[in-house]
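Lab notebook: predicted structure, single chain.

Context: the supervisor wants predicted structures on file for every construct in the current expression panel, including those that have not yet been purified. This is the next one on the list. No modifications to the sequence; it matches the entry in the shared construct table.
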Amino acid sequence: MSHISSPSESSLLVRDARGHYHAATADQILEAARQAIDQKMQRVANFGSPADVKAYLRAKLGGLDHEVFAGLFLDNRHRLIDYVEMFRGTLDGASVHPREVVKEALRLNAAAVIFAHPHPSGSPEPSEADKLITRQLRQALALIEVRVLDHFVVAGNDTVSFAERGLL
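Prediction complete. Output recorded below exactly as produced.
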């Protein structure tokens, strides 16, 4: 029986292009977790509860050190069509363009959408800018009959739901 030696017996390992194993970096571990959650959610018919959505988003966004604005585009039975990172920003913000979100919803033939973005600062509290863009997106998407179900702010393991806070 062969044994793979590593810097630490508890390290997770990744294989390089030549077939050699090395200790995984934190970024590689987070990327693997994102891929695993994508595969898991593709097998699930729909998001059965807000807890399912939160777990999915924590895995996708919780470890990011920059802002992205993502949309979970859903069909009329709230099954995931696609997760799309629409906009990428710096540590403290990402520019969001409602026109581009509307185009993506039409392209995917979505009936509903859930928005999400991380707060790398560590506080999941929605900012006034977060509230404003959510209102603008709801208005724009209402014109094409796409419902905004929620907007989540993720900060590590903490997640705030606009719907649970009465902000939608």
